[in-house]
Specification:
single chain; 239 residues; alpha/beta; TIM Barrel; 8-stranded mixed sheet; two-stranded parallel sheet; 8 helices; 36% helix; binds iron/sulfur cluster
């Protein structure tokens, strides 16, 4: 399998099969905490980086080679070695997966392309979208997520508000907290205000625990994570 990985059993999703929609590592961000290493192509250009017909063929073949796991499969998760929304075939893939199997589709995205109304339309077929939002001031956004030139964090918030208006599936907003970069509780209160506007179903708070793209990227203490969770309120969970 080239583009399919797993399946992995997760507490939140059950048995989930991953699909990567870009080669390693094409992304619009170069987050300091990325577990995949440094971004090799930093871009906002959308194209069919990986041919969707080939991915669907691989998915069919995985289903027929893994009949026992296929029956238990709860989710197919579009994520992988870069930003999946950069692939212009994402909508075709979601529909194709659903035609082939009775399975839910989750999309994990860094939120930077949600401004694109064609993409938002494509995502309407998904069951769950997990967009990330690590900062709402441009200086902190640039420091933690190191975006390609031209991305304005305020636009990301506005586009997530639009997504919520248009999308009837679940949205789980993910916030990564990195020690010394975006762990200031006053600024976190501002992210919470943005999250209130976006109105996700859940807010998942995370802090880097594995090897990251940069050295000296540290997680915050459990105590701090709980304070952050309390700021975000009852929809929040630490993962
Ligand atoms: S958005 Fe995801 S893949 Fe891209 S750099 Fe950040 S963590 Fe890595």
């Amino acid at each position: 399998m080239i583009h399919i990985y797993g399946p992995v059993k997760s507490r939140r999703l059950g048995l989930s099969l991953g699909i990567s929609l870009t080669p390693h590592k094409i992304c619009s961000l170069d987050c300091v905490y990325c577990q995949l290493g440094k971004t090799s192509v930093l871009t906002l250009n959308r194209r069919e980086y990986i041919k969707i017909n080939g991915v669907l063929k691989e998915f069919r073949s995985w289903l027929s080679n893994n009949p026992v796991e296929a029956k238990k499969l709860k989710f197919v998760t579009l994520s992988g070695a870069g930003e999946p929304a950069l692939n212009t075939g994402i909508g075709k893939l979601i529909l194709g997966i659903k035609k082939i199997a009775k399975v839910k589709v989750a999309v994990i995205t860094n939120s930077t392309l949600i401004f694109d109304k064609n993409l938002r339309k494509d995502l309407l077929q998904a069951d769950l979208i997990v967009p990330s939002l690590d900062a709402i001031t441009q200086d902190v956004f640039v420091k933690i997520d190191r975006p390609v030139k031209g991305i304005i964090v305020k636009d990301i918030v506005d586009s997530l508000v639009k997504l919520r208006e248009e999308f009837s599936g679940k949205i789980w907003l993910e916030v990564m907290i990195v020690k010394g970069i975006n762990d200031n509780l006053k600024k976190i209160k501002k992210i919470k205000e943005a999250a209130d506007k976006i109105n996700p179903d859940l807010i998942q708070i995370n802090s880097p625990v594995r090897t990251t793209a940069e050295k000296n990227v540290f997680c915050v203490s459990k105590d701090k994570l709980n304070k952050v969770k309390n700021i975000f309120g009852k929809k929040a969970q630490v993962i």
